[in-house]
Amino acid sequence: MPRSRAPEMALWRLDCGHFDIDDLEGRGRVLMPVSCYLIRHGSDYVLLDTGLKAGLVGTSERQTGQTLTLNRTIADQLGQIGVDPARIGTLVVSHFHGDHHEQSGTVSNARLLIGAGDLAVFRSAPPRERELNPWLNGKRPVEAVTADRDLFGDGRVRILFTPGHTPGHLAMLVKLDGLSVILTGDLVHNRDQLASATPSGNHTDKVRGKAEIERVLAIARTEKAEIIVGHDQRDIARLPAFPAAAE
């Protein structure tokens, strides 16, 4: 019996905004990118996070200690690479913080996968932006994640259950033909935290957070995977510049 052909894989980094932070944990002014990722697995598409709200395009929002901006919407970027948002079958939201879910309405045909603890937060205190309403109101399917999960059963796209930053935080391992990567979500906010497995100051459970950083580092060694920190400006260049994809 002939061996089935491996699915074609691709990974795009999408620009989902920036935080211009006046003083980040005593390190002075920091420009922090907001990253989202589109993964193609054969004919299936997965979107990891949806970034800051679309209404920021062409303007900015000042919050305490920081300014939020967005250059392009996810819909605009998907259009540039010819991907209809309706084709995205799975949306993975790494955690409940707003910069990771505020354009979710762009892919409202998708099922939503989110950590169980973070889903509980959403249901107890619905977010200000209403992008997640189709899922929170039961109109679209939601699956609560409580452990690592192989999305397609072939090990190519794996959700990593990494609580600590939030109760149900998720990261993701993607195994392409040319390389493997781990997309951290907010497991850490910059690469410097990896060497000492130091959680960020806003982790809700720093003990668990440290343990999960150490576990992800071990997975990266086993899988020979490169760790991509979504909020670290230095890591943008670790993937091809959009509209190119890593394959």
Automatic annotation (TrEMBL):
SUPFAM superfamilies named in the record: Metallo-hydrolase/oxidoreductase
Any one GO MF annotation of this record: hydrolase activity
Keyword set includes Zinc: yes
SMART domains for this protein: Lactamase_B (SM00849)
Pfam families: Lactamase_B
CDD domains for the chain: AHL_lactonase_MBL-fold
InterPro entries tied to this protein: MBL_superfamily_lactonases (IPR051013), Metallo-B-lactamas (IPR001279), RibonucZ/Hydroxyglut_hydro (IPR036866)
Keywords of the record: Hydrolase, Metal-binding, Zinc
Annotated Gene3D superfamilies: Ribonuclease Z/Hydroxyacylglutathione hydrolase-like
Ranges where the Metallo-beta-lactamase domain occurs: 33-231
Protein family according to the UniProt entry: Belongs to the metallo-beta-lactamase superfamily.
PANTHER family the UniProt entry points to: BLR3078 PROTEIN, QUORUM-QUENCHING LACTONASE YTNP-RELATED-RELATED
Name of the protein in question: N-acyl homoserine lactonase family protein
Organism in which the protein naturally occurs: Sphingomonas lutea
